[in-house]
Design goal:
By secondary structure, this protein is α/β, with parallel strands linked by helices. Helices cover 52% and strands 13% of the residues. α9 crosses α10.
Protein backbone atom coordinates (compact mmCIF):
# COMPACT_ATOMS: atom_id res chain seq x y z
CA UNK A 1 0.00 0.00 0.00
CA UNK A 2 2.83 2.37 0.88
CA UNK A 3 4.52 1.60 -2.44
CA UNK A 4 1.30 2.32 -4.36
CA UNK A 5 0.87 5.60 -2.50
CA UNK A 6 4.45 6.54 -3.32
CA UNK A 7 3.92 5.78 -7.02
CA UNK A 8 0.73 7.84 -7.12
CA UNK A 9 2.44 10.82 -5.47
CA UNK A 10 5.34 10.55 -7.89
CA UNK A 11 2.96 10.40 -10.86
CA UNK A 12 1.11 13.48 -9.61
CA UNK A 13 4.32 15.46 -9.27
CA UNK A 14 5.28 14.56 -12.84
CA UNK A 15 1.81 15.16 -14.28
CA UNK A 16 1.39 18.51 -12.53
CA UNK A 17 4.69 19.78 -13.96
CA UNK A 18 4.98 17.90 -17.29
CA UNK A 19 7.96 18.21 -19.57
CA UNK A 20 7.54 19.10 -23.22
CA UNK A 21 7.60 15.42 -24.19
CA UNK A 22 5.08 14.45 -21.54
CA UNK A 23 2.82 17.35 -22.53
CA UNK A 24 2.86 16.05 -26.09
CA UNK A 25 1.88 12.64 -24.81
CA UNK A 26 -1.06 14.05 -22.85
CA UNK A 27 -2.11 16.03 -25.92
CA UNK A 28 -1.96 12.93 -28.11
CA UNK A 29 -3.94 10.92 -25.55
CA UNK A 30 -6.54 13.66 -25.23
CA UNK A 31 -6.75 13.92 -28.99
CA UNK A 32 -7.30 10.19 -29.25
CA UNK A 33 -10.13 10.26 -26.71
CA UNK A 34 -11.79 13.20 -28.47
CA UNK A 35 -11.31 11.44 -31.79
CA UNK A 36 -13.21 8.42 -30.49
CA UNK A 37 -16.07 10.63 -29.28
CA UNK A 38 -16.21 12.94 -32.29
CA UNK A 39 -14.56 10.72 -34.86
CA UNK A 40 -16.24 12.03 -37.98
CA UNK A 41 -15.31 15.71 -37.76
CA UNK A 42 -12.05 15.09 -35.90
CA UNK A 43 -10.71 12.57 -38.40
CA UNK A 44 -11.94 14.58 -41.40
CA UNK A 45 -10.20 17.74 -40.20
CA UNK A 46 -6.99 15.83 -39.46
CA UNK A 47 -6.85 14.00 -42.78
CA UNK A 48 -7.85 16.97 -44.91
CA UNK A 49 -5.40 19.28 -43.19
CA UNK A 50 -2.59 16.88 -44.08
CA UNK A 51 -3.91 16.36 -47.62
CA UNK A 52 -4.49 20.05 -48.35
CA UNK A 53 -1.12 21.02 -46.89
CA UNK A 54 0.61 18.45 -49.10
CA UNK A 55 -1.32 19.05 -52.33
CA UNK A 56 -1.72 22.85 -51.91
CA UNK A 57 -4.75 23.22 -54.23
CA UNK A 58 -5.85 26.57 -55.64
CA UNK A 59 -9.49 25.92 -54.72
CA UNK A 60 -11.49 23.66 -52.41
CA UNK A 61 -15.13 23.05 -53.43
CA UNK A 62 -17.53 22.09 -50.64
CA UNK A 63 -21.16 21.10 -51.08
CA UNK A 64 -23.72 20.93 -48.32
CA UNK A 65 -24.07 21.42 -44.61
CA UNK A 66 -22.81 18.40 -42.69
CA UNK A 67 -20.18 18.46 -39.97
CA UNK A 68 -17.65 16.78 -42.28
CA UNK A 69 -17.87 19.72 -44.68
CA UNK A 70 -17.40 22.15 -41.79
CA UNK A 71 -14.22 20.33 -40.79
CA UNK A 72 -12.91 20.61 -44.37
CA UNK A 73 -13.80 24.30 -44.52
CA UNK A 74 -11.95 24.95 -41.26
CA UNK A 75 -8.85 23.15 -42.52
CA UNK A 76 -8.84 25.01 -45.84
CA UNK A 77 -9.52 28.40 -44.24
CA UNK A 78 -6.61 28.13 -41.82
CA UNK A 79 -4.34 27.04 -44.68
CA UNK A 80 -5.39 30.17 -46.61
CA UNK A 81 -6.91 28.16 -49.46
CA UNK A 82 -9.83 29.64 -51.39
CA UNK A 83 -13.14 27.89 -50.64
CA UNK A 84 -16.14 27.64 -52.97
CA UNK A 85 -19.33 26.61 -51.17
CA UNK A 86 -22.35 25.09 -52.95
CA UNK A 87 -25.85 25.35 -51.39
CA UNK A 88 -25.16 28.12 -48.89
CA UNK A 89 -27.94 30.34 -47.61
CA UNK A 90 -30.63 27.66 -47.42
CA UNK A 91 -32.82 27.40 -44.31
CA UNK A 92 -33.76 24.07 -42.71
CA UNK A 93 -34.31 24.94 -39.05
CA UNK A 94 -31.90 22.32 -37.67
CA UNK A 95 -28.24 22.08 -36.64
CA UNK A 96 -27.41 21.66 -40.34
CA UNK A 97 -28.54 25.24 -40.92
CA UNK A 98 -26.05 26.52 -38.34
CA UNK A 99 -23.28 24.44 -39.91
CA UNK A 100 -24.23 25.70 -43.38
CA UNK A 101 -24.05 29.34 -42.29
CA UNK A 102 -20.72 28.70 -40.57
CA UNK A 103 -19.30 27.29 -43.81
CA UNK A 104 -20.65 30.33 -45.65
CA UNK A 105 -18.61 32.63 -43.40
CA UNK A 106 -15.47 30.54 -44.01
CA UNK A 107 -16.00 30.41 -47.79
CA UNK A 108 -14.91 32.95 -50.40
CA UNK A 109 -17.06 31.97 -53.41
CA UNK A 110 -20.75 31.15 -52.97
CA UNK A 111 -22.80 29.07 -55.42
CA UNK A 112 -26.36 29.24 -54.11
CA UNK A 113 -29.42 27.41 -55.43
CA UNK A 114 -32.16 30.09 -55.33
CA UNK A 115 -32.88 33.79 -54.94
CA UNK A 116 -33.83 33.55 -51.25
CA UNK A 117 -30.52 31.87 -50.48
CA UNK A 118 -28.73 34.53 -52.55
CA UNK A 119 -30.35 37.25 -50.44
CA UNK A 120 -29.44 35.54 -47.15
CA UNK A 121 -25.77 35.10 -48.10
CA UNK A 122 -25.57 38.79 -49.02
CA UNK A 123 -27.26 39.67 -45.70
CA UNK A 124 -24.44 37.79 -43.94
CA UNK A 125 -22.04 40.34 -45.38
CA UNK A 126 -20.52 38.36 -48.22
CA UNK A 127 -19.13 40.18 -51.27
CA UNK A 128 -21.86 40.36 -53.99
CA UNK A 129 -19.17 39.91 -56.65
CA UNK A 130 -18.60 36.36 -55.40
CA UNK A 131 -22.18 35.22 -54.77
CA UNK A 132 -23.77 33.39 -57.73
CA UNK A 133 -27.23 31.85 -58.10
CA UNK A 134 -26.33 28.72 -60.07
CA UNK A 135 -29.46 26.72 -59.27
CA UNK A 136 -29.59 23.27 -57.68
CA UNK A 137 -27.16 20.71 -59.07
CA UNK A 138 -29.30 17.91 -57.60
CA UNK A 139 -32.44 19.13 -59.37
CA UNK A 140 -30.53 19.57 -62.61
CA UNK A 141 -29.15 16.04 -62.37
CA UNK A 142 -32.61 14.61 -61.66
CA UNK A 143 -34.06 16.53 -64.61
CA UNK A 144 -31.60 14.82 -66.96
CA UNK A 145 -32.31 11.29 -65.77
CA UNK A 146 -34.03 9.41 -68.58
CA UNK A 147 -33.53 5.82 -67.39
CA UNK A 148 -36.69 3.69 -67.19
CA UNK A 149 -37.13 2.10 -63.77
CA UNK A 150 -38.69 -1.36 -63.66
CA UNK A 151 -40.45 -3.34 -60.93
CA UNK A 152 -37.55 -5.79 -60.92
CA UNK A 153 -35.05 -3.04 -60.18
CA UNK A 154 -37.13 -1.55 -57.37
CA UNK A 155 -37.91 -4.85 -55.70
CA UNK A 156 -34.29 -5.97 -55.90
CA UNK A 157 -33.51 -3.26 -53.34
CA UNK A 158 -34.05 -3.69 -49.63
CA UNK A 159 -36.60 -6.03 -48.05
CA UNK A 160 -40.33 -6.25 -47.57
CA UNK A 161 -43.48 -6.06 -49.69
CA UNK A 162 -43.07 -6.05 -53.47
CA UNK A 163 -44.23 -2.81 -55.10
CA UNK A 164 -45.79 -2.50 -58.54
CA UNK A 165 -44.65 0.94 -59.66
CA UNK A 166 -47.13 0.87 -62.55
CA UNK A 167 -49.89 1.12 -59.95
CA UNK A 168 -50.43 3.88 -57.32
CA UNK A 169 -47.85 3.74 -54.55
CA UNK A 170 -46.25 6.00 -51.96
CA UNK A 171 -42.59 6.91 -51.58
CA UNK A 172 -41.51 8.10 -48.13
CA UNK A 173 -38.25 9.41 -46.72
CA UNK A 174 -38.06 10.87 -43.22
CA UNK A 175 -34.77 11.94 -41.69
CA UNK A 176 -34.33 12.74 -37.99
CA UNK A 177 -34.71 16.29 -36.69
CA UNK A 178 -31.19 16.65 -35.32
CA UNK A 179 -32.11 19.37 -32.82
CA UNK A 180 -34.82 17.27 -31.15
CA UNK A 181 -34.46 14.24 -28.92
CA UNK A 182 -37.81 12.53 -29.49
CA UNK A 183 -37.85 11.62 -33.18
CA UNK A 184 -39.73 8.44 -32.32
CA UNK A 185 -43.04 10.32 -31.92
CA UNK A 186 -42.66 12.04 -35.31
CA UNK A 187 -41.90 8.74 -37.03
CA UNK A 188 -44.76 6.84 -35.42
CA UNK A 189 -47.17 9.58 -36.51
CA UNK A 190 -45.89 9.33 -40.09
CA UNK A 191 -46.19 5.53 -40.05
CA UNK A 192 -49.81 5.68 -38.94
CA UNK A 193 -50.73 8.29 -41.53
CA UNK A 194 -48.98 6.43 -44.35
CA UNK A 195 -50.62 3.12 -43.41
CA UNK A 196 -54.05 4.78 -43.48
CA UNK A 197 -53.76 5.21 -47.27
CA UNK A 198 -53.52 1.41 -47.67
CA UNK A 199 -51.09 1.78 -50.57
CA UNK A 200 -47.82 -0.05 -51.24
CA UNK A 201 -45.01 2.12 -49.90
CA UNK A 202 -41.33 2.45 -50.70
CA UNK A 203 -39.74 3.65 -47.47
CA UNK A 204 -36.17 4.93 -47.58
CA UNK A 205 -34.01 4.33 -44.53
CA UNK A 206 -33.00 7.56 -42.71
CA UNK A 207 -29.54 8.92 -43.47
CA UNK A 208 -26.78 8.89 -40.81
CA UNK A 209 -27.31 11.77 -38.37
CA UNK A 210 -28.10 12.41 -34.73
CA UNK A 211 -31.37 10.57 -34.06
CA UNK A 212 -30.97 7.96 -36.82
CA UNK A 213 -30.56 5.13 -34.30
CA UNK A 214 -33.76 6.10 -32.54
CA UNK A 215 -35.67 6.17 -35.83
CA UNK A 216 -34.17 2.86 -36.96
CA UNK A 217 -35.27 1.23 -33.69
CA UNK A 218 -38.78 2.62 -34.19
CA UNK A 219 -39.00 1.24 -37.72
CA UNK A 220 -37.90 -2.20 -36.53
CA UNK A 221 -40.28 -2.07 -33.56
CA UNK A 222 -43.25 -1.15 -35.73
CA UNK A 223 -42.40 -3.94 -38.16
CA UNK A 224 -42.22 -6.55 -35.39
CA UNK A 225 -44.97 -5.34 -33.04
CA UNK A 226 -47.44 -3.77 -35.50
CA UNK A 227 -47.21 -5.72 -38.76
CA UNK A 228 -50.58 -4.35 -39.87
CA UNK A 229 -48.94 -0.93 -40.24
CA UNK A 230 -45.99 -2.18 -42.25
CA UNK A 231 -47.43 -5.06 -44.28
CA UNK A 232 -47.38 -3.11 -47.56
CA UNK A 233 -44.03 -1.40 -47.00
CA UNK A 234 -40.74 -2.01 -48.75
CA UNK A 235 -37.66 -0.71 -46.94
CA UNK A 236 -34.74 0.29 -49.13
CA UNK A 237 -31.25 1.56 -48.24
CA UNK A 238 -30.61 5.17 -47.30
CA UNK A 239 -30.46 7.87 -49.96
CA UNK A 240 -27.27 9.30 -48.46
CA UNK A 241 -26.80 12.74 -47.03
CA UNK A 242 -29.58 15.11 -47.98
Amino acid sequence: MQRLKSLLIRFWHIASRPSAHLSLGFLALGGFVCGVLFWGAFNTALEFTNTLHTSSPDLVVICGDRFEQLAIAMSAAYLNITIAHIEGGDVTGSIDESVRHAITKLAHIHLVTNEDAHRRVLAMGEDPAYVFNTGSLDVELAAHVSTTITNEQVNALGVGHDVDIEQPFLMVVQHPVTTEKDNRVHLETTLKVVSSFELPTIWFWPNPAAGTGEMADSLRHMREEHPELTAMRRRVPELGPV
